[in-house]
From TrEMBL, chain A:
Membrane spanning stretches: 22-41
SUPFAM superfamilies linked: 4-helical cytokines (SSF47266)
Gene3D superfamilies assigned: 1.20.1250.10
Protein name (Swiss-Prot/TrEMBL): Interferon kappa
Native species: Camelus dromedarius (Dromedary)
Keyword Disulfide bond in annotation: yes
Feature: compositional bias, Acidic residues: 139-150
GO CC field: extracellular space
Keywords from the UniProt entry: Antiviral defense, Cytokine, Disulfide bond, Membrane, Secreted, Transmembrane, Transmembrane helix
InterPro entries: 4_helix_cytokine-like_core (IPR009079), Interferon_alpha/beta/delta (IPR000471)
GO biological process: defense response to virus
From TrEMBL, chain B:
Membrane topology: Single-pass type I membrane protein
Name of the protein in its database record: Interferon alpha/beta receptor 2
One GO CC term on file: extracellular space
UniProt keyword terms in alphabetical order: Cell membrane, Disulfide bond, Glycoprotein, Membrane, Phosphoprotein, Receptor, Signal, Transmembrane, Transmembrane helix
Transmembrane feature ranges: 240-260
Amino acid sequence: MATDDDDDDDDDDNDDDDDTCLVGLFFTGIFSLDCTLLNVYQRRVIWQNLRLLSRMSNSFPTECLSESKAFELPLEILSDAQPLKRDIKEAFYEMAIQAFNIFIQDTFQSTWEEKHLRQLQIGLDEQLRYLEQCLEEEEEENEDMKEMEEEERKHSRDTVSQLSNLELRRYFNRIDKFLKDKKYSHCAWEIVRAELKRCFYFFYKFTALLSRK
Amino acid sequence: MSKAKWNTAHFSLVFGISYILHDFSNEYCTLKMTLQNFRSVLSWEVRNHSVVPTHYTLWYTIISKPQNMTLVKDCTNITRSFCDLTDVWGNVTDTYIPRVVGFRGGTQLVNCMGSFFLETDTMSLDPPEFEIVDFTDHINVKVKFQSVAPKILDGEELQFYLAHVIEEQSGGIVKKYKPEVNGNITENFNYVINKLIPNINYCVSVYFEPKDPEKINRSPLKCTLLQPGQESESSESATIGGIITLFLIVAVFISTIMILKRIGYICLRNDFPKVLDFYKLSAWVFPELPPLEKVATVEIIHVNRKKKVWDYSYDESDSDDETAPQVSAGGYTMHGLRPLGPTSTSSATLEDCSDQATEEPDLPEPEAVTEAAMAPGPSPWQSECTSGAHEVSGDLLQDALSEEGSSPTEDSGDRIIFNVDLNSVLVRVLDDEDDDNSEVTPMLSSLPEEAVMPEGPAETDSSLLVARGEGTQLPFPSPSAECLWPEDAPSDHSDTSESDVDIGDGYIMR
């Protein structure tokens, strides 16, 4: 996003950095070690991101309706058939990192609430760190298992996981391409914003399904 | 290829028109999405009140799928300014774009569009209806719901729950209560807010608390001032009301019976069967105790009389006038007792017995008289009198006292028992105060000669025949004893002045 007053931006960045540190410490302090609360955290942070996306702008500009596009969110990865918890973590991680890559770009509309955008970026970053830590812990636990069973199980698991992650990546690639093709126009961002709200809500429901198990 | 180009051009043309239409956007009306009784309702309000359409038509589309506007059939050409989209907008993950067009006649006046992502852009639940019942120290809140199965609300996804807000007007303190709702949140339930202080105004508000705190839609406050002792007063008033109601019912019933009886519609019997004789039944169940008899000391005033020697003259003047009742100066009537013979109910008198007694050379001592009186028939000469004594009471005294309402006499063996109505006879209770004011005194004083008493100090103690002292009960002396008692008394007035009456259990009164 182009800025004219660098000094003001620097001040804002400093303030935002302070807020980022505080928020980061807050989340890290609570959820850094306990991966058993991962689902709870995921549910909460995804809902917060959803609210932030809604507040970032006013109602969808109806003039952009003509440029809408079907991005085809892969709903099959969110089905209840996922047997392993690691696959769910990986799907969450893939979604979070892809969304983070989209919102970390400095091509946002000036009409958006910047405060909300910053908070969204912080939330996504913390979500990624939490998931990375829990995935590493789970990786270490798997090293204690028997090699033969681990190899077979790992192979089957990775296949499913890879397919799911691949579909997610393709989905976010379509979004990214759309932005680029529309040259990060206002309507393109609005359409992407509406689409990511839909994506976040699906993952939010996915965590609800997981909590029943 | 040409076909594809044609489609593209057509597509653009359509959207071009739509774009033009979109210029109307939201400048003319305000769209609002709410949950009313868990129903998704889209409402709109025209901003420019100078241009008010008469009819509205609703279309919609979604962002995720480029498509033409879809007409809502139930909201086509309607006059109301809202539309229930519960069955139309079922996918809460999509962003819906509604379009409301207002007409007046055939002229389009307004064209409003908006966007709603149902999870975050709506869900301003209308608060449920509720009632409050205030007591002294607590308030009962009754929350009502309409039995509608929410399609949008999913207890686990949306996590709506109730929150009561109580505001104390005096302190401005707001306390929030979140009752746990078991089961569906659409069921009616009661919640009691305890530990409240009387004489303080409390206001209650009920609303759904969504995940987004900014979406809270509070209900209007309902306030009440807790009255001290209100709960007891309410119960007392209820009791009083119940009593009054019962009284009115009974009064109406009784008055109805009385009216019917008076007009002759019903006839109430006075002679009830024996089984319904509750008076007797009650008397049988609860027998009346005999009235307490006041036992008092009675003084016998002895009147000495000269022994009149019979001069062997049959003077009729000495007739049986003794038995005639004599009226005293005080207006009292005196009656005497005369023993009767076995065949005669009236001939036998105490005079005879007394005559018989006078033939005896020696009169028994008063104590002996007492013994004789006590013992049944100890002396031969007593037999006749004794037998007659059974009947003495039957006539003389009965005649004399019947007017006074004395109860019939009854004999028990060798004694005569009289039941005397104390109200009809004169009784003087030995008391220091009564010595001068005794009613008996005038009577006795007027008839001093007629009082028959055995002479002698010992004989004065013939009061043994009278109930002397509390509790002393002597059987009515046998006629022989009676006869013995006035030993020196002439026959004509042996007992006229005396009406020794046995009252029930042997009291003798004068």
